[in-house]
TrEMBL record, chain A:
Residues 541-582 are annotated as: Disordered. It comes from Halapricum hydrolyticum. It is a peripheral membrane protein. It catalyses: a quinone + sn-glycerol 3-phosphate = dihydroxyacetone phosphate + a quinol. This is glycerol-3-phosphate dehydrogenase. The lineage of its organism: Archaea, Methanobacteriati, Methanobacteriota, Stenosarchaea group, Halobacteria.
UniProtKB/TrEMBL annotation, chain B:
It comes from Halapricum hydrolyticum. PANTHER family: ANAEROBIC GLYCEROL-3-PHOSPHATE DEHYDROGENASE SUBUNIT C, GLYCOLATE OXIDASE IRON-SULFUR SUBUNIT. It comes from the Archaea. This is Anaerobic glycerol-3-phosphate dehydrogenase subunit C. Its EC number is 1.1.5.3.
Length: 582, 441
C-alpha cells in the first residue's frame, strides 16, 4: 500500500463531491469520476430546498434532526449558495388540525425553531397565498443552489489536490484477487478540463479504495462486480415558474402527498413533486399529467400559479434504498436515510463501499461518515474539517456593494452577480475588458461567463450551471449563441476552442434547454419557443444546419460591394433602398 | 356618423398577472409593489428597445426591456434590492408600452420603479430633487405666475434670472418659458357665466389641465365653442394636475393627492351624465391608463372608461369630419401645417386623427412629420443634464418640419408644441383651434 492512500470516488453529485472534498482535506489522494457534468444525476434535478427538517418532523425524526443541524452548517460554510428564505407549513381548512399539532410537536421535539402564525400573518408575509389558509407553522427552511454548491465543493477538493474527471463514465471495475483495485473509465473527450471532439479513449485508474457514490446508478456499478445493490429509483417531477410567486418556501401541512411544496429559487419558483418508482434511472416516461398535477394541486396554496408562466419541467430520480427485508410497497414509505454498504462485510468483496439513499441537505454529514469509514480502512485518524471551513466563494463577503462604482454594473445585475460569486466577486468582476451582459434574463455578464469557461472548458452546460446563463424566461433563446461566441477562440490550459468545438457546445446547450421546455409548451412559453425557433431559424439557419459538423468556409463569402451609402443621403431613397438613378 | 372605431371595443392583450393579482394590494402596509408577475409576458423580443427614443441617442441607457420586465424579474421584494438609477434617464414617452407585442405593462413598471427610486434612493434635499419637484408641480408655479402674468412673463425669460436658474436649479437657459395668459381659462369661463348650451342628453366635462388654463386659454375656449356648436353642454369641474409630470418625476405621492381631487370631481360629473374630454393627450392618457394602474381610488376605473381626447370624442359622436369636408378656412389659419403626433396620443391610438380630419379641409394643407418623438417629454427637456439628449431626440422631427411646406406646426401636446417651437421657430397650433376656425369663425 502506498504511503498516502489513493481513493477513487464514483459520482459527481453532492454526495461524491462532498466525499472527495472531505478526503482531500484529510490529505488523502482523491480522484473523482463522473459520467456527465457535475450534478448530472439527481443533484442537478432537485427543487433546491435547504430542509429545516420540518418535512420529516413527524415521519422520520432522525432525519429531521440531521437536517436542522446541517441546515445551520450550510448557512455558514456555503453562504453564497444559500438564501435563507424561511419556510411555512400552511394548513388549508380541509387539512386536519391533528396533523398540524403533530407537525408542531415534531418540530419542537427535533429542535427545529417553529412558530405558529395566523392565516392573516401568513398572507402578510406571502401576499399571494390563498385567502382561505387557516394558519401556518414558520420554520427555517431555505433555498440552496445545488450547482453552485457542488462546483464550490469541487473547487475546494481540487485546491486540496484532488483530481476531478467529468464526462468519464466508469466502464468496468478492476478486480484482482477478489478485491476491487480501481476502475476503467472512458473519457468522452480527453483528460483534464473537458474539450469537445477529442476522443480521450479509456483509462485504467488504480486506487487503494473505491467509493461508489453514484446514487441511482449504484446498482449498475454493483453489477460490474456481481454485487446486488437494490436501489429503488423513484422519479419526481419539478416545474419551474418564470418568476417567484412566493419568497418563502411554502409546504402543505398534511401527511405525505404529491405536489405539496413551492420553493423560491433564484429568479424562479420550483413546484414539487411526485414520487413514483421507475425501473431505469435514465429511461422513464415524463408525462404531462405529472406537470398538470403540480399546478392543479399547488394552486390551492397559491392561486395565481394557475395563470402564471411555467418555463420548463424536469424529473429527478431519487436513489432510494431500503434493506431487502423491509419491502415497502409505496416508494413514499421508503426511508430517506442513507446506507453505507461495505462490500467487504456484505459481499465479501474488499476494496469498495457503496453509499445509497440519503438527501441533499445532509450531503456533508453523509460525506463525513463515509470519509470516516474510508479512513478507518487505512487506520488513519484525521479530523473532519468540512463543517468549519467555508467553501470557496463563501468566505466573508457582503452583497451590498456599489455595483456601478465597483464593477460598472446596473444594480440588479451587479446584485445577482455578487450573490452568485460570493467572495469571488472582486476577482471575477473587476475586469478591464468590456463586460456586457450576455444572459439578460439572469443578469450574467461576460466576465462571469469567461470565469466559468476557465473552470470547465468547452462545455456550455457546465458554464450554465456555474452562472445560470440560459436559465431564465427565454431559456437560452437570446444568449446561447453569445455563449458559443465567448467560447470560440478562448484558450484554457493550452487548448483553444475552434469553431467546431464552439458549435458542438452550442448545439448541446440548445438541446438541453429544449428538453425541459417541451413540458411547458402552452401560453407564454409556447410563444417564447416559437420566437426562439423563428429567430434561430432565420438568423442562425438552425432549421437546416449547413455546417453539419464541418467548419464553415467563411472565406468563401464575399466582402460585399464596394459601395456604401453616402452620408449626405443623396443616393439613398428615404425608405432605405437605393434611388432609381443609382 | 363617426369614422373612428369605437375605442371602447379596443381590447388590448391583458398581461398575464394571474387572477388574484392585484399589484396595489400586495403589500398595503409597506407601500411597496411587486410587479414581478408582469415579467411573465415578456419574450425578450426587444421591440420595446428598438422603439425607445432615449436608447437611440444614449448608449449608456440600458433601455426599456431592462428597465421593465428584466429589472422587475431580477429584483426581489426585500429592501436590499434597489432600483437602478438609470430609470431617471427614461423620458416617460411610453413608446415601449405602446409597441410591446405581448402586453407587458411597461408604463406601470417604469412609473412604479421611478416612484420607488425617488422615494427610497434620491436625497430629499438634493438640488435635482427640489428642481424635479418644482417642475412636476407646474400647476403650483403656474398658479402663482398667473396672478401677475405680465411680471411673470418678463422675469421668467429675463436673462439674469435664467442664468441664476441654470446655475442653481439646472434648468437650461436655452429654453423659453411659456407665456402666461393675462386671463386664465377659468377666469374667462366665470366671466362668461359658464355654459351657453344646456342639454340633458349631450354633456361633457372638460378636463382642461394646467396648460390650457394658464398658458393657452385660446385652445380651451375653442373647445367650449366647438362642443357648444355641436349641441353639447360643457361642464368645467374642479380639477388639479392630471399627474403626468409627477409620474415622470417619480412623485407618486403628489400625483395621488391631485388624483384624489380629480377622481372625486370628475366621477361626480359622470354621475351627472357627462363624459370627460381633455385637450391635452398626456392628461387624457393619465386619466385613462396611469390612474387605474397606479392608484386604487373609488371610481377610478369608471373615470378611465369615460375619458376621451377632445378630438377623438368629436370623431366618435359628431359629424365633425363631414362638416370639415364642406368647410373652408381663410385668414390667419389658412396655412400648411407640419403635424407631429405626441407619443401619448400614439399610445391612445390617436396618431392619425388630425391628418384624417384635415387632409380634405379646403384652405389648409397638413403633413405628418413622421413618427419620431419630439424629445421634450414634458419636464424631461427642462433639465440641464437632459437638454442635449432632448434636442438630439427631437432633431429628426425638426428636420422634417423644416422640410414641410409652411412655417406653422400642429400638435395636441403643449410640451411637444414648445419643443417644436424651440427647434424651428414655428408658430404651433392645436387641432381644436383649426376646427374652430373652420366651423365657427
Amino acid at each position: 500500500m502506498a504511503s498516502t492512500p489513493h481513493v477513487l470516488v464514483i459520482g459527481g453529485g453532492s454526495t461524491g463531491i462532498g466525499i472527495a472534498r472531505d478526503l482531500a482535506m484529510r490529505d488523502l489522494d482523491v480522484t473523482l469520476v463522473e459520467q456527465g457534468n457535475l450534478t448530472h444525476g439527481t443533484t442537478g434535478r432537485m427543487h433546491g430546498l435547504l430542509h429545516s427538517g420540518g418535512r420529516y418532523a413527524v415521519s422520520d425524526q432522525a432525519s429531521a434532526k440531521e437536517c436542522i443541524q446541517e441546515n445551520r452548517v450550510l448557512r455558514d460554510i456555503a453562504s453564497h449558495c444559500v438564501e435563507m428564505t424561511g419556510g411555512m407549513f400552511v394548513k388549508r381548512p380541509e387539512d386536519t388540525e391533528e396533523y398540524f399539532e403533530k407537525k408542531l410537536e415534531g418540530c419542537r421535539e427535533c429542535g427545529i425553531p417553529a412558530e405558529v402564525i395566523s392565516g392573516e400573518e401568513a398572507r402578510k408575509r406571502e401576499p399571494h397565498l390563498a385567502k382561505d389558509i387557516d394558519k401556518a407553522i414558520a420554520v427555517p427552511d431555505g433555498a440552496i443552489d445545488p450547482f453552485r454548491l457542488v462546483v464550490a465543493n469541487a473547487a475546494s477538493a481540487e485546491q486540496h489536490g484532488a483530481r476531478i474527471e467529468t464526462h468519464s463514465p466508469v466502464t468496468d471495475l478492476l478486480i484482482e484477487d477478489g478485491e476491487v483495485v480501481g476502475v476503467e473509465v472512458k473519457h468522452k473527450s480527453g483528460p483534464g478540463i473537458r474539450v469537445h471532439g477529442t476522443e480521450g479513449g479509456t483509462e485504467e485508474i488504480r486506487a487503494d479504495y473505491v467509493v461508489n457514490a453514484s446514487g441511482a446508478w449504484a446498482g449498475q456499478i454493483g453489477e460490474m462486480a456481481d454485487v446486488d445493490i437494490e436501489v429503488r429509483p423513484s422519479k419526481g417531477v419539478m416545474t419551474i415558474m418564470n418568476i417567484r410567486q412566493v419568497d418563502t418556501v411554502i409546504n402543505r401541512c398534511r401527511p405525505k402527498g404529491d405536489a405539496d411544496i413551492v420553493v423560491p429559487h433564484e429568479t424562479t419558483a420550483i413546484l414539487g413533486t411526485t414520487d413514483e418508482e421507475v425501473e431505469d434511472p435514465e429511461d422513464y416516461p415524463e408525462e404531462q399529467w405529472e406537470v398538470d398535477l403540480m399546478i392543479d394541486t399547488l394552486k390551492e396554496l397559491v392561486p395565481m400559479l394557475e395563470e402564471a408562466r411555467t418555463i420548463r419541467s424536469f424529473w429527478g430520480v431519487r436513489p432510494l434504498y431500503e434493506p431487502p427485508d423491509v419491502g415497502s410497497e409505496d416508494p413514499t414509505d421508503i426511508t430517506r436515510d442513507f446506507f453505507l454498504l461495505d462490500h467487504e462485510e456484505r459481499d465479501d468483496l474488499p476494496g469498495m463501499t457503496s453509499i445509497v439513499g440519503g438527501k441533499f441537505t445532509t450531503y456533508r454529514l453523509m460525506a463525513e461518515k463515509i470519509s470516516d469509514h474510508v479512513c478507518e480502512q487505512f487506520d488513519i485518524e484525521r479530523e473532519c474539517r468540512t463543517a468549519d471551513e467555508p467553501l470557496p466563494g463563501s468566505e466573508d463577503f457582503s452583497v451590498l456593494r456599489d455595483y456601478m462604482e465597483e464593477f460598472g454594473l446596473r444594480s440588479p445585475i451587479g446584485r445577482r452577480s455578487v450573490e452568485r460569486l460570493g467572495s469571488r466577486a472582486d476577482e471575477v468582476l473587476k475586469t478591464n475588458e468590456p463586460n456586457p451582459v450576455i444572459c439578460e434574463c439572469e443578469g450574467v455578464t461576460r466576465a462571469e461567463v469567461q470565469d466559468a469557461i476557465k473552470q470547465s472548458g468547452s462545455d456550455l452546460n457546465a458554464v450554465r450551471i456555474r452562472t445560470r446563463a440560459s436559465m431564465g424566461n427565454c431559456q437560452g433563446g437570446m444568449c446561447v449563441h453569445r455563449l458559443a461566441s465567448e467560447l470560440h477562440d478562448t484558450s484554457v490550459d493550452g487548448d483553444t476552442f475552434d469553431e467546431a468545438i464552439a458549435r458542438e457546445a452550442w448545439d448541446e446547450l440548445l438541446q438541453e434547454r429544449w428538453k425541459g421546455q417541451r413540458h411547458a409548451l402552452w401560453g407564454e412559453q409556447l410563444s417564447q419557443a416559437m420566437l426562439n425557433y423563428a429567430l434561430h431559424a432565420t438568423t442562425q439557419n438552425r432549421d437546416n444546419d449547413p455546417a453539419d459538423g464541418e467548419p464553415v468556409d467563411f472565406a468563401a463569402f464575399d466582402a460585399g460591394g464596394d459601395h456604401v451609402g453616402d452620408a449626405s443621403g443623396t443616393d439613398v431613397a428615404a425608405d432605405g433602398g437605393e434611388t432609381d438613378g443609382y | 356618423m363617426s369614422d373612428a372605431r369605437d375605442p371602447t371595443e379596443f381590447d388590448p392583450i391583458v398581461p398575464n398577472t394571474g387572477e388574484e393579482y392585484e399589484p396595489l394590494e400586495v403589500f398595503p402596509e409597506s407601500g411597496s409593489f411587486d410587479l414581478r408577475p408582469g415579467a411573465d409576458s415578456c419574450y425578450k423580443c426587444s421591440t420595446c428597445d428598438t422603439n425607445c427614443p432615449v436608447a437611440e441617442v444614449d448608449d449608456d441607457f440600458p433601455g426599456p426591456k431592462f428597465q421593465g420586465p428584466e429589472q422587475w424579474r431580477l429584483k426581489q421584494t426585500d429592501d436590499d434590492y434597489v432600483i437602478d438609477s438609470s430609470i431617471s434617464e427614461c423620458s416617460n414617452c411610453l413608446r415601449c408600452d405602446t409597441s410591446c407585442p405581448s402586453g407587458v405593462n411597461l408604463a406601470q413598471m417604469h412609473n412604479t420603479a421611478r416612484g420607488e427610486y425617488v422615494e427610497n434612493q434620491v436625497p430629499k434635499f438634493s438640488v435635482k430633487y427640489i428642481r424635479n419637484r418644482i417642475l412636476a408641480n407646474y400647476r403650483t408655479s403656474a398658479y402663482f405666475a398667473s396672478m401677475l402674468p405680465r411680471t411673470a412673463n418678463f422675469f421668467m425669460n429675463f436673462g439674469p434670472v435664467r442664468w441664476a436658474m441654470e446655475k442653481v436649479l439646472h434648468v437650461p437657459s436655452e429654453r423659453e418659458f411659456p407665456e402666461f395668459a393675462t386671463q386664465t381659462f377659468r377666469q374667462w369661463w366665470a366671466e362668461r357665466g359658464g355654459a351657453k348650451v344646456h342639454s340633458d342628453e349631450k354633456r361633457i366635462a372638460y378636463f382642461h389641465g394646467c396648460y390650457s388654463n394658464y398658458n393657452t386659454p385660446q385652445v380651451a375656449k375653442a373647445l367650449v365653442r366647438i362642443y357648444e356648436y355641436f349641441g353639447y353642454e360643457v361642464m368645467v369641474p374642479e380639477q388639479k394636475c392630471s399627474g403626468t409630470p409627477m409620474f415622470a418625476n417619480g412623485m407618486l405621492d403628489d400625483a395621488r393627492r391631485h388624483a384624489e381631487t380629480n377622481v372625486e370631481s370628475l366621477t361626480a360629473a359622470i354621475e351627472d351624465g357627462a363624459d370627460i374630454v381633455a385637450s391635452c393627450t398626456s392628461c387624457s392618457m393619465a386619466l385613462r391608463n396611469e390612474y387605474p394602474e397606479l392608484f386604487d381610488i373609488d371610481g377610478i376605473d369608471d373615470l378611465a372608461a369615460h375619458t376621451y381626447d377632445a378630438v377623438e370624442y368629436l370623431r366618435i359622436h359628431t359629424d365633425v369630419r363631414q362638416e370639415l369636408e364642406q368647410a373652408e378656412v381663410s385668414g390667419e389659419l389658412a396655412e400648411e401645417f407640419a403635424y407631429h403626433a405626441p407619443c401619448h396620443a400614439r399610445s391612445q391610438g390617436l396618431e392619425r386623427q388630425a391628418i384624417e380630419l384635415f387632409r380634405n379641409l379646403d384652405g389648409v394643407e397638413i403633413e405628418d412629420v413622421g413618427d419620431s418623438c419630439s424629445g421634450i417629454s414634458g419636464t424631461y427637456g427642462w433639465k440641464s443634464e437632459k437638454y442635449e439628449k432632448s434636442m438630439e431626440i427631437g432633431s429628426e422631427m425638426f428636420e422634417h418640419m423644416e422640410d414641410s411646406g409652411g412655417t406653422t406646426g400642429m400638435t395636441e401636446c403643449p410640451t411637444c408644441a414648445s419643443q417644436m417651437e424651440h427647434g424651428t421657430g414655428y408658430d404651433i397650433r392645436h387641432p381644436l383651434e383649426l376646427i374652430e376656425a373652420a366651423l365657427i369663425d
